[in-house]
Amino acid sequence: MKKNRLFGFCAFAALLLSSCKDSPNVPEVTTPEPTEYSVWVATANGSYLLTTDEIMKDTLLSPANNKGVDITGNLPQARYAGYAYIFNGYYYLSNDGTRFSKHQLVQTPQGLLFKEVDNYAFPSDFYLGKVASQFSTNDEIVFTSTGASDANLEKKIFEKDIYFMNTKDMTLNKTLKAQIPMLDYTVYKKDGTVDPTILNVTSMRVAGGKAYFGFFYYDSDYKPVNKKAYAYICDYPSMANGHIMSDDRASYVAGHWQRENYSFLDDNNNLYLLTRGKTDGTFAILRVNNGQTEFDKSYLYDLKDYAVKGGDLAWLGDGKAYIRPYVIDVANKRIVANLAEMTGGDPTTTINLIQDGNLYTAVKTPASKWFIYEYNIKNNSVKKGAEIDPGVTQVYHINKLK
């Protein structure tokens, strides 16, 4: 089932691979790679994992310096990094549309290898969706799939599966189903026929005995059917007592159905959802207070004056969240920091690393250079770390491997 086709190599990666061909023919011995961090990047011709023991030292991370691992053959396109999750040193990705694979970086006599160590084959199309990271453990990952939710016309609901994957042997421990009601009115196409509306889940969070799903309904032209913000709440893990919250003070709940989340929970388990704003091209934030089943009508943070770029929202603690490129005091509706201004570049990382009170993100400078920056949450300061090869076109993940 594994795809072995390689889609091409950039010049510096070719140098790395050619050096491997001259290695002596010895039995392969593999051990886990002891490196601390990996940076998942894309070039014009492929995808690579750049590894390092220190992401804040003055060094260059590049496939050309024997620290780059070519993973192009594991992905149909570079953007499929959005369907990947890295946890406890393992990479979990959906790489061929059905199989959920577990990979690890291992050291061989020929160099670093991105090795599949196990997989699970789904019976139908599958790409990794939202991950309930607060419940994922060494032994289990809790996640959804991407794509449209299955419509049950008889019950007039959309069913969204939540999978509980045993990471030891890559088998499903169980599957739960969220049952989100269909629209209570009919949508018509321009020709007068009924439009089979679909549901797009953009975020999933679980806390305090409740599961929350941010979502919007869209039509056959892939456009939201209305400008309301929707969220579904139900008991967890029973999935009973489901209820839809809606709000027309903002527009539809932002986001895609892949790994990125467009919601976060604060330290008191209040849910914040990023939505589109009433003004085209803008964003807003809505809140659902812990234990409540409706949006907080006293809270709306309209971000129409700020160049929010979405991405994987992150709760930083100390009352702050990261919504690229801004650090926001969400309760007080205040911008604490603009990382674009503080770094002089464009923070672009899809999934950032948060560690020891710091946020790590990749920044592209106006001169098209790339650097990792550390944002100190408590001190509200930034520091420049390792440089990333200028041949990179996108930085998707910054991950800690051990």
Average pLDDT for all residues: 87
What kind of sheet is the major sheet?
6 strands, mixed
Distance between the termini: 29 Å
Low-confidence runs: 1-29
Radius of gyration: 22 Å
Report helical residue fraction: under 10%
Quaternary organisation of the protein chains: single chain
What is the approximate shape?
globular
Number of E strands: 32
**What share of the residues does DSSP label as strand, in percent?**
over 45%
Question: How many alpha or pi helices?
Answer: 2
What class would the helix/strand composition place it in? mainly beta
Protein name: DUF4374 domain-containing protein
Organism: Sphingobacterium zeae
Brief sketch in words of this structure:
The protein has 402 residues and is mainly beta. The protein has helices spanning 11-21, 339-343; strands at 31-32, 37-42, 47-52, 60-61, 68-70, 84-87, 90-94, 99-108, 111-121, 128-131, 140-145, 150-152, 157-166, 171-181, 198-207, 210-218, 229-235, 243-247, 263-265, 271-276, 283-288, 300-302, 310-317, 320-324, 326-329, 334-338, 346-347, 353-355, 358-364, 370-376, 381-388, 394-400. The strands form seven sheets. Strands 4, 27, 28, 29, 30 and 31 form a six-stranded mixed sheet that branches. Strands 1, 6, 7, 8 and 9 form a five-stranded antiparallel sheet that branches.
